[in-house]
Amino acid sequence: MKQTAGDLPARPVDTGFGRRLADDEKWLGRVMLAPAITYIVALIGFPLLLALFYSVSNVTVGSYGWPSFVGLANFRNAIGNPAFPRALWNTLVFALVSQFFVMILATILAISLQREFRGKWVVRLMILLPWVAPISLGSIGWLWMFDSVYSVINWTGRALGIFGKDTWPIWLGQPTLAMGSVITVHVWRLLPLATVILLGGLSGIPKDIHDAAQVDGAGVLRHHFQITVPLVRPIALVALLFGTVYAFTDMIVIYVLTRGGPYETTQVLSTLAFFTGIDGGDLGGGAAIALFLFPVLAACAVLILRFARQAEVT
Amino acid sequence: MAGERRGTITSPLSRGVNFGVIAAFVAFTAFPFFWMVITTFKQTLDLMNPANNPFLFNQPPTLTHLRMLFQETAYAQWLWNTAWVGGIVVVITLLLAVPAGYSLARLSGSSGEQLGIGIFLTYLVPPTILFIPLSRVVTFLGLTDSLWSLVVVYPSFTIPFCSWLLMGFFKVIPPDIEEAAMIDGLSRFGAFVRVVLPISVAGILTTIIFTFTLVTQEFVYALTFISSSAKFTVSVGVPTFLVRGDVYFWGSMMAACFIASFPIAILYNLFVDRFIAGFTGGAVK
Predict the structure, then answer these.
(1) Residues of A104-131 as b/e, b for ≥16 C-beta within 10 angstroms?
(2) Which of A19, A108, B54, B168 could form a disulfide with A14 if both were Cys (CB 3.0 to 4.6 A apart)?
(3) Does residue B68 have a pLDDT over 90?
(4) To 10 degrees, the CA torsion angle through B177, B182, B188, B190?
(5) Contact B234, A134 (CB under 8 A)
(6) How far away is chain B from the Cα of A39, in angstroms, using its nearest Cα?
(7) What is the nearest CA distance from B70 to chain A, expressed in angstroms?
(8) pLDDT value of residue A310
(9) Rounded CA gap, A174 and A58, in Å?
(10) Contact B36 A141 (CB under 8 A)
(11) A217: alpha, beta or left? (left if phi > 0; alpha if psi -120 to 50)
(12) pLDDT tens string B165-179
């Protein structure tokens, strides 16, 4: 596992095999890359194939020996289960709505942060916090803010007169509010990442391009839409696709805040796969549900490849 | 971040709007953490009285919640577990990703770019697809309910990410430096070890911070593979174990969340510029 090229001698006066390898670019490159590739294949490629294999077999947590082939029964059961179409729909709503808000807010924030000002370091720290802190712990902070009795949001709303005497929203206990709450927390979590990527794109635009536009007399709006936007677009798309993958496949926020409740209204594919496969012990069924995430992932991967090439700002 | 802005509009009004926008965003992102700190030092009776103004200390601050967290729960053990797993994963990641990053940047010719993106894309394969087969792999390896299961599995997402990051760092080192060293009699590999690595310390430090951050954030695998409470990492221990039935120890929970979040955020902030450079530098020729 831990094979590195580190045990090759690199003495200047050595004409043995080691020295030849240490100078042969092609083979040295391969030797240095091999351990990482091996690790990735063993722990991502192989489990991915195993997931496919499990999804067409009757494997459970307690079963030993060779699982038997059951064809598409797991997929049929998954689709036939009334919880499944709802989870699929919830996944779409959760991912698309949260990404919509993340992109809009991140654009506004990135543009505001471009300017130099005093205390930027602290501001950046504050904005990065939701992304850096372990998200399961950040979600617990929100759990406390959404508490049905002691919610600080409700208290403030009432103090400011936004909520009337009879309004006391139970954020995580009412279906629409619960979906809104988990989306809010997810936006909160992904906003810093999208902002940072967009800022990188904005500051990557060479200054002379801006200068040239000004010399040519482009107005503020025209400058923005004809120079800045097209140059940032590829990297913005990468940020969007990244966030989409996270939103479609993440389960932490929902697991901590609602466990898929109330009445399965916030159950998404990933949480359903977890409750089916790990808590329920039906590994085959869980694997089949999780595999429905794969087309989204593949599509995002292909698109990222395309835009990453365009993003090469030279 | 180089805030190069064209000096078109810097009227006091636009500056005021800018400030307002940033203040609103900071309130949104940082409030939950501010709330964790306030809650940590409040007495339970103060917390559990809906008539009280939650923003004020209606009773004197207390250290009870912190004491309880460290004396009556396994929290310190979870911190230690997280650090231990993080440390070993950092070592494995560096051993594999540093040579891989260099190989992608310098030795893989024109295919390096494609390979690099290919490796990076594997980082996107989410735990929520892999945790079911990996749970069987962990059982097969005899690592069920052991921290070693995390040590083995975590590099599967840190290596792709860090190989990409390091590729970006190595790309921006001028090749002349290595060429000069090779003219002086070092081999290609010798030049990498003795010349490139010493000047890449900052990039490698960035990689260490990010690997460690990824490890502390991971939730799904730890939740799936670990079952005994003494072996939890922080990110799983607090949400599963400190929440007992309907009794929530809010003060201690908020302390637990804040203590595990803040130090790493400060470190991360120190290195975020380099991170952006590496992240986008990987795509920039």
Answers:
(1) ebbbebbbbbbeeeeeeeebbbbbbbbb
(2) A19
(3) no
(4) -90
(5) yes
(6) 7
(7) 17
(8) 65
(9) 36
(10) yes
(11) left
(12) 888 888 888 888 888
Q: How far apart, in Å, are the Cα atoms of B217 and each of A47, B69, B154?
A: 22, 20, 11
Determine how many CB atoms are found less than 10 A away from the CB of residue A68. Answer: 9
Interchain contact B144–A (C-beta under 8 A): no
pTM of the predicted model, to two decimals?
Answer: 0.84
Residue B34 contacts A, CB cutoff 8 Å: no
Spatial separation of the C-alpha atoms in residues B100 and A4, rounded to whole Å: 10
Amino acid of residue A136: S
Cβ atoms of residues B86 and B207 within 8 Å: no
Look at residue B2 and tell me whether its pLDDT is greater than 50: no
Which chain A residue shows the shortest CA-CA distance from B93?
A: A36
Tell me how far apart the alpha carbons of residues A94 and A80 are, in angstroms, rounded to a whole number: 22
pLDDT at B242 over 80: no
pLDDT at B10: 64
In chain B, which residue's Cα lies nearest the Cα of A22?
B189
Structure-token match 């020996």, residue found: A65
Shortest Cα distance, chain B CAs vs residue A177, angstroms: 18
CB < 8 Å to B168, chain A: none
Handedness of CA A35, B197, B169, B165 (dihedral sign): positive
Report the percent of chain A where pLDDT is more than 90: 8
Contacts of A51 in chain B (CB under 8 A): 129-130, 132-133
Tracing tokens 């430096």 back to the chain, one arrives at B177
Q: Among partner residues A192, A290, A301, which is closest to B29 by beta-carbon distance?
A: A192
Tokens found for residue A113: 């942060």
Pick among A144, A145, A216 to test the B interface (most B CBs inside 10 A): A144
